[in-house]
Amino acid sequence: MGGICVNPWLLTAIIVAVVIAAVIKRLIGEPVNARELFAAPVVLTGIGILSLVKKTDLTAADITWIVTGAVLGVALGALRGATVQLVEKRGVLWQRYTGRTFVAVLGTLAVSAGFNVLAVKMGMHEYARPLQLAIGVSFLGESLVVGRRGMSSGIPFAPARTR
Fold first, then answer.
1. Tens-of-pLDDT digits for all 163 residues of the chain?
2. Whether the Cβ atoms of residue 34 and residue 95 lie closer than 8 Å to each other
3. Residue 106 falls within a domain, yes or no?
4. Range of the domain at 134
């Protein structure tokens, strides 16, 4: 049973473009709605998990580092989510990245890079670290915290956009 094969460089370029677009939108400020808050993180995490499921030669060490890295990624994303500014604008919840968010981004990138170097030195295979999974779980952690903070603010989320 064959699947869709996407050039890894093309997939990486698409992911980078999506992440850059999301960061720019959040730097400017954007309304928060549940679907948009969770869609990209869930899709990226799913693609990352799918790429791992297709690998038949993952070791116990790989799986241990993958799970540990995913937990770390969610935690670091949650830390970043705590720095996102939430305000009421036009009657709905808006989010905006702040200077603190970018400091958190730099810190989390350094921690993630150190973790990845340690994981490889301790036996994790390079191919067992899909970029999509790392980005997905990080944005999932951020979205969980932003969503929770938004719900507790009492400010209504923006309605889903119709296409």
1. 444 566 777 877 887 888 888 889 888 999 999 998 999 899 999 989 998 998 888 999 999 999 999 999 999 999 999 999 999 999 999 999 999 999 999 999 999 999 999 999 999 988 888 888 999 999 999 999 999 999 999 999 999 876 6
2. no
3. yes
4. 56-163
